[in-house]
Amino acid sequence: MPAIVANATRDRLRIAIQKSGRLAEPARSLLAACGLSWRESRDRLFCYGESLPVDLLLVRDDDIPGLIADGVCDYGIVGRNELDEQANARLELGLAPAYREVRALGFGGCRLMLAIPETWEWEGAQQLQGLRIATSYPAILRQWLGARGVDAAVVELSGSVEIAPKLGTADLICDLVSSGATLRANQLKPVETLLESQAVLAGPVHGFNDARADLSAMLLRRMDGVLKLKDSKLLMFRAAPDTVPALTRLLVDAEPLVQLPGEHAEGISLQTMCHTAISWQQLEELERAGARGLMVLSVERSLA
Ligand code: PRT
Ligand code: ZN
C-alpha cells in the first residue's frame, strides 16, 4: 500500500468506504457504475484505481468522517447518522465543520428513533425529563434534548443498545431502526424520529486546488448520472396530437414529452424519461388514453 500522506498536493483521489457491513457492497457497486475499477492490495485495505486515478480505502464506517477531516481521504461513503453524530461531537468541542454531505445516495435508509417500552404511553419530549436514554449517538441525542429543554441522562453504548432497558442500564433507547423488528423483539416501540438517514457521499468543506479538482468534478457528474438513472426508464409511444394533454396528465413523474421526427398512421412519435417505476397498470391507462406501441426501455448511461 502506498504511503498515505494527508493534506499534500495529490493527483489521485482517495475515497473511504466501509470494509464490510451494510454499506460496503452498495458503495462499491455505485462506484463501479461510475466507471471505476481497482486492483486489490494483499492487505485488502487499499484498492488502487486502475480505470481512473481514484483509489479506495476500506475502513470501519466510524473512521470515515475523521479520515476526511484529517485530509487522509478526499471523499467517503458513510451513513448520514455517523456523519452527523461526529459533526455534532465536533461542534460540542467547539471545532469547525471539517466535512460536508455532498450527495445523498439513496441506499442504507434508516431512522434514528427514540423507542420506549411497549407498556408506556408516549406523551412527548417532556416525559423524558430525568430519565436515562441508551444510545450510540450521544451528540445527536444531546442536541435534540437540548433543543427541547429536556434534562435527561445520555447513556453511551457502542452496541446492543436495544437490550439496555431489559438490563436496567437505561429506561429507553435512541437507536437506528429500519424494519422495526429489533424493537419489537425487545418489547420497545418507536415514538420520535431524530434523523432520517441514508448513505451519503461526504467530502471536504473546501474544493481542491490540484488535479483532484477535475477528477472530483468528473466523478460527481458520473455519480449524478447513475443516481438519476437508478429508477429511470425511457418511455416511447405513438399518439394522436389531440390526446397529448390527457397523456401528459397521466405522466406525473416524467419529464416533458418530446416529439420525435416523422409521422405514423397512429399519429406522432413521443418519448419521455420517467424517474419512477412504470407499472403495467400505468401502461394500460396510457393505452386507454390513446397511446399506441408503448415501449419501456432501460437507460444504461446519460450525461445530462
Ligand atoms: O464494522 P463497521 O463499524 O464498519 O460497521 P457497523 O457495524 O458500525 O455498521 P453497519 O454495517 O451495521 O451499518 C452501517 C450503516 O448502515 C449505519 O451507519 C446506517 O447508516 C446504515 N443502516 C441502515 C443501519 C440499519 N439500516 C440498521 N437497521 N445500521 C444499523 N442498523 C441496526 C440498528 O442499529 C438495530 O440494531 O439494525 C437494527 C435495527 O434493524 P431493524 O430492521 O430490526 O429495525
Ligand atoms: Zn461502525
Automatic annotation (TrEMBL):
Coiled coil: none annotated. This is ATP phosphoribosyltransferase. Keywords: Amino-acid biosynthesis, ATP-binding, Cytoplasm, Glycosyltransferase, Histidine biosynthesis, Magnesium, Metal-binding, Nucleotide-binding, Transferase. Gene3D superfamilies: 3.30.70.120, Periplasmic binding protein-like II (3.40.190.10). One of its GO terms (molecular function) is ATP phosphoribosyltransferase activity. It catalyses: 1-(5-phospho-beta-D-ribosyl)-ATP + diphosphate = 5-phospho-alpha-D-ribose 1-diphosphate + ATP. Pathway: Amino-acid biosynthesis; L-histidine biosynthesis; L-histidine from 5-phospho-alpha-D-ribose 1-diphosphate: step 1/9. The lineage of its organism: Bacteria, Pseudomonadati, Pseudomonadota, Gammaproteobacteria, Lysobacterales. Feedback inhibited by histidine. The gene is hisG.
